[in-house]
Inverse folding.
């Protein structure tokens, strides 16, 4: 992905970083020789300028729950 700007935002109190990862399976065919990516696990972590140096993953007063994960149960 190309950044919108070549400069970082000013390091103030309103910076929020969001990191995410999708684990997918490709078991569903949707076109000739093409498989559909179906997410079965999504992990998200967010940190703000206040909690970015904290070692633990406890909730932050400013940005809330820092780690989330969502899992899709297999069908069948």
């Amino acid at each position: 992905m190309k950044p919108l700007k070549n400069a970082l935002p000013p390091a103030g109190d309103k910076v929020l970083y969001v990191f995410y990862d999708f684990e997918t399976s490709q078991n569903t065919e949707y076109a000739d020789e093409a498989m559909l990516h179906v997410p079965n696990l999504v992990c998200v972590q967010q940190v703000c300028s206040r909690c970015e140096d904290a070692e633990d993953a406890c909730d932050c007063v400013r940005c809330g729950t820092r780690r989330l994960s969502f899992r899709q149960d297999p069908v069948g």
Observations:
- The CA atoms of residues 40 and 62 lie 29 Å apart.
- The first strand starts at residue 16 and ends at 31.
- Residues 16-71 form one domain.
